[in-house]
Amino acid sequence: MTSATAKAQPPTFTRRKPPANVRRRRFLVTVADHSFLIAAALVFLAPFVFIVLTAFMTNDQALSPDLWPHPFRFQNFADVFSEAPLWRYALNSLIYGGLATLFLLASSIPVAYALAKLRWRGREAAFLIVLVAMLLPPQVTVIPVYVMWAKLHLVGSLWPLILPNLLGDAFSIFLLRQFFLTIPDEYLDAARVDGCGEFRILTTVVLRLAKPAIAAVALFSFLFCFNDFFGPLLYTGESPDNWTLSVGLAQFRTVHQVQWNLTMAATLIVIAPVVVLFFLAQRAFVEGVTLTGVKG
Hints:
This protein has helices at about 1-10, 20-35, 35-55, 60, 75-85, 85-115, 125-135, 140-150, 160, 170-180, 185-195, 200-210, 210-225, 230-235, 245-255, 260-280, 280-290. The protein is mostly helical. The chain folds into 2 domains: about 20-80, no CATH class; about 85-290, MetI-like fold. Helix 6 (about 85-115) runs antiparallel to helix 15 (about 245-255). The model has no long low-confidence stretch (mean pLDDT about 85).
């Protein structure tokens, strides 16, 4: 019995390791095939590497031709927090980005659902208005919108940047609508047969199927708010307590313009959350953007 089982087992093959010259030739061919991408990556990474290395230098080293810090000065990051209220700026950026993103999703999702899955008179005209709004430069409405918020006595706070998201965003509505069109109508019809209303269908069926698109829109919105400089500078320029990280970093550079080590350390602190957030949400972001526009 044992001999029969041994005969029935298939023979095992050990994969031979290629010779060193073959591995070297394959490596050189791979490098040659991707030479353009490697060169482009080095070009894009060079400024970031310069920022990181300068952030660990002393003040004298940052003003010298040396490219490598010796020794590494980690005290620069502590000095940045003592020289500027970065925690306050970070909190303002989180408030701005978090509330704006929540308001944007709450207002854009129902509109996108109505444009994609509901049949009503004037739907195509409404969608055309959304497309026109995407083409309208924001600089056209800066002055009248600023005058409106000034009359409401909200200039100097973050509310002029947060409250407009309650009215939705043309690009977010377009992106969500394109994804909602890919959801089969059979799912929605089955829910209607079971007695679900449109609001319940939206919250229990559509939102569960549209998680990648919602994640992409939320990431777009939060990164825009986190990196926004013009809006916070326009409305909170005279109120340092409401400055975001982008405005605070610009002011920090103005004050410490010859202390490049502190400036680069502050820059590294500001961009680190964005880089980490993008890598954590990269899969949902790419999936959401890829799956939109599959169906016109």
